[in-house]
Amino acid sequence: MSDSSLRPGAERRRQLRQERRTDRLRNLWRLVVFSAMATGLGYGLLSQGWTLRSPSQVEVSGSQLVSRDQVIQAAGLSFPQPLLALQPRQIIQTLSVALPVENVRVSRLMLPPRLRVELIDRAAVARAERRSTAGVEQGYVDRLGNWISLRQNLGVRLEGTQELRVVGWNDRHRPALAKVLKQRPAFGGKLREIRFDPEGSLWLSTTDLGPLRLGPADGQLERRLTVAAHLNAALPTELKGRRPQIVDLSDPNQPELSLTGFKPVAESGPANAVRPRGGQ
What we know:
Layout: H1 3-49, E1 51-52, E2 58-61, H2 68-75, E3 81-82, H3 88-98, E4 101-109, E5 114-121, E6 123-132, E7 135-142, E8 147-149, E9 157-158, E10 165-167, H4 174-182, E11 191-196, E12 202-206, E13 210-215, H5 221-233, E14 246-248, E15 256-258, E16 275-277
Parallel strand pairs: 2-5, 6-9, 6-10, 10-11, 13-14, 15-16
Antiparallel strand pairs: 1-3, 4-5, 6-7, 7-8, 11-12, 12-13, 14-15
C-alpha cells in the first residue's frame, strides 16, 4: 500500500485527537466556571439568603400557652441569624427545659428561610407529692410521669388533677407511673391514688376496691394493671357492695382479697380467679 493512501487516514486520526483535546479543555473550562458560580451562589445564600432577619421568620405552632416571643427568648435567638448556624437538637433541649411543654420539634426551612417550632403543651393530670431535703413537696405530674413543680404549674393546663393523687413520686418511678396513667381510662374514673412505698412497691386505690397492691414495677406490671382494671369493673357477685381491706395482685395469675369475716367460696374456676382470704 502506498504512502499516499495512508495520509488521509493519518490526517483524520490527528484531527480526531485534536477535537478530543479541544472537547476536554472546553469541558474543564465549563466545570471551572460552574464551580465558581456554585461557590459564589452558595456563599451568597449562606451569608445573605438563608438568614433569619426578623422574628416573623420563626413559626410557632401547636401551643395555646407559649407565644413566639417566649420561644425566641427561651432559645436565645437574635437577629440577623444564619439559618444553618442553628442546631435544632440543641434548641429542642433548651426549649424542653425552659418552657411548659411536653414535646418539641424544630426544623429549618430554606425557601423561604424560616425556623419552624412545633410544640405540645404539658398538661398536669394528677396532684403529686415527693420527699425532698426540705420535707414533703407538693406538685403535679403530666401524663408521662414527669414532675411539675407548683412554680412550673403556672404555665400548664390542669386536666382532672383533683381526682387523682400520686404519692411517693421519684424519678426512677416515672416509667411505671406513665404506664399506670396510660391505663387510667380502664378504671372508669374510679382510680383515686397511685402510691410508691419506700421499698418501691406500687399501690393503687380505687373507689370500689380500696387499696390494691401491685408489687414491684417489673415486667409483669402491665399484666397486673389489666387484672386490676378488670376486677374493678367486674367484682365477683359475692363481693358486690363489700369493700375489701386489701387486694394483692403481686401474682397477677392468682389475685387475693382480704376481707373481715368473709367465708371463702369453693376454690374452683380459672387460674386468675379472685381467691378471698379471711380477716386478719
